[in-house]
Amino acid sequence: MYTVFVVGTAGSGKSTLTSSFSDWLRGQEQSTLLVNLDPAAHSLPYEPDVDVRDYVDYERIMVSRRLGPNAALIASIREVARYVEELKEDVNSFNPDFVIVDTPGQLELFAFRREGLILTENIGVEGRKTMLFILDPIFCTNVKNFVASTFLASSIYLSFGLPMIQVLNKIDAVPREHVERIQGWSESMDSLLVDLEDKLKGGLMVFSREVAQAVYDIISSIPIIPVSSISMEGFPELHAVLTRIVSEGELELR
Amino acid sequence: MYTVFVVGTAGSGKSTLTSSFSDWLRGQEQSTLLVNLDPAAHSLPYEPDVDVRDYVDYERIMVSRRLGPNAALIASIREVARYVEELKEDVNSFNPDFVIVDTPGQLELFAFRREGLILTENIGVEGRKTMLFILDPIFCTNVKNFVASTFLASSIYLSFGLPMIQVLNKIDAVPREHVERIQGWSESMDSLLVDLEDKLKGGLMVFSREVAQAVYDIISSIPIIPVSSISMEGFPELHAVLTRIVSEGELELR
To answer: Which of B63-72's residues contact partners 24+ apart within 8 Å by CB, and which partners?
Structure first.
């Protein structure tokens, strides 16, 4: 049983990827369990097998505690963590090849609060978990935003300590050369540095080389796989990297 | 006119700091304008002078477009960016010493979408803007989370390109030695690495050593000021760093 946590900023396409990739996995005769961890999910493009909304009701929390939407999101994720044992048992009662866990819409509720850590530590089998960090190719077309995304990914990588794969999602939505440029940055530090020096100015430019080096070190441990949740392009590669990482274990993080 | 954008993850205390620091500034006879950019703010601890909720109604967007809370937050911030000219004029019609801009509750709606960039580029006077990134001392007590927060801050620093100050907020809520430990990490690379190597294992340890080293140069250009919004401790230091950064300009980024 491999457990895959899908994380990314709001609107990056976590739920769509969860839905589409699980369809693909099932097409490969891999049994797949879908978990929704977002108590505020309104509608989902898939039918969750384990659904946190069975335990936590965002709307009820907002109304009964008279909270605004932001405070209610925080209160909800706290409540989710209280049901971690139930969620763990729900997942363990199945024994699928893959567990795909779709995380809350707002990344920071999961990634920068202790509740996220409690959930990833308890759901799935130790040593057989990975995290998919979704990159938005429209945001990442600008080299500064690409670097910002990479730093964000490494931030999450460090705090969770799980092997991570960056998924460059929605490649159907941007010209092919944008995807190639992003892949180029991840493959050649020089190409990243040239484009970065062109975009940064003044005091920030002094950091170009250090930043490029840091980003390059990070990316060498976090592969980037371009995929489309619409055409399913890239899913065989994603599946191959996932199984390799989980089967080879922690020593193969880099 | 100095413009200060207050950013941080949900619950880090952006609005409380906005309120308390502006009280302090006014006590120093600095005229201060308060701007709320969160269309989903339910109640605020201060009275905004310019309020995005006069233009964008989160609840109405949610109901009229039949969106869930996450999708409605994204739609709202898009709508906010459409009113950027109005917001700019509202701010410019005053001419205060300080403009304090409280940003949306969910950091990623502002920091990892192009709307955030549009707003910071248009509000305030070029070359006289800074960003306060709020650190939560409870989250940052763990060295991995401290590094994760620093990566997050660098990510935002690079994509906005504004001088940044990290504000270690809520120091009244944690033991003094926690604050000192966090300050120690920011002042000595060795102390950071010793604690980090103690916490990380396997492949992650190699990764952290290289990356922490490279990113340390960036950290050194983002000072950390411990403050309490309750006791106002640290506000004189914050004010001093703010005015120094803005008056000395970009060359003093490091």
So the answer is: B67/A42, B68/A40, B68/A41, B68/A42, B68/A43, B68/A105, B69/A40, B69/A42, B69/A58, B69/A69, B69/A72, B69/A73, B69/A105, B70/A10, B70/A38, B70/A40, B70/A41, B70/A42, B70/A105, B70/A106, B71/A42, B71/A105, B72/A69, B72/B40
